[in-house]
Amino acid sequence: MEQRQNPRFPVRFRSSFTSLNIVGGDGSIIDLSLRGCRVDSPTAVRPGTSLEVRIQTSEDEPPLKIREAVVRWSRDRQFGLEFVTLEPEEWARLQHTVTQLERHPYQENPAGDPSAAA
């Protein structure tokens, strides 16, 4: 079995994806690494499809834009993406996000839940 070169971190980021005239949809990124991610989405995608992906890592910043990601596998409501093309500034943002996840693992904080802030 192939081992990953980059660790994946559990997250829950909103995302959207499009492919020229083939598919488009929304989903949740449920794990993230420097080289790819896993998406949970009701939209079916086929392995080998190239997508443009937007990942909302923070409410305070514009979405992270992956210019090209290739679907490597798809089953049930999930699919795996390998990041292929990012602009240099987006690559820097991705590196920063993953570094922050290494230091401080992602935790959902539901709005209005005072016990979640404790």
Low-confidence runs of at least 5 consecutive residues:
110-118
- At CATH level 2, the architecture is Beta Barrel
Order of helices and strands: EEEEEEH
Number of strands: 6
Main sheet attributes: strand count, strand direction, barrel closure: 6 strands, antiparallel, barrel
Instruction: State the helical fraction.
Output: 10-25%
The name of the CATH topology is: Thrombin, subunit H
Output the CATH homologous superfamily.
predicted glycosyltransferase like domains
Protein architecture, described:
Helices cover 14% and strands 45% of the residues. With 118 residues, it is mostly beta strands. It has a single domain, classed as Beta Barrel (Thrombin, subunit H). It has a six-stranded antiparallel beta barrel.
What key phrases describe this protein's structure?
1 helix, disordered C terminus, 6 strands, 118 residues, mainly beta, single chain
Outline of the structure:
The protein has 118 residues and is mainly β. The chain has one helix at 88-103, and strands at 9-19, 23-32, 36-40, 50-56, 64-75, 78-85.
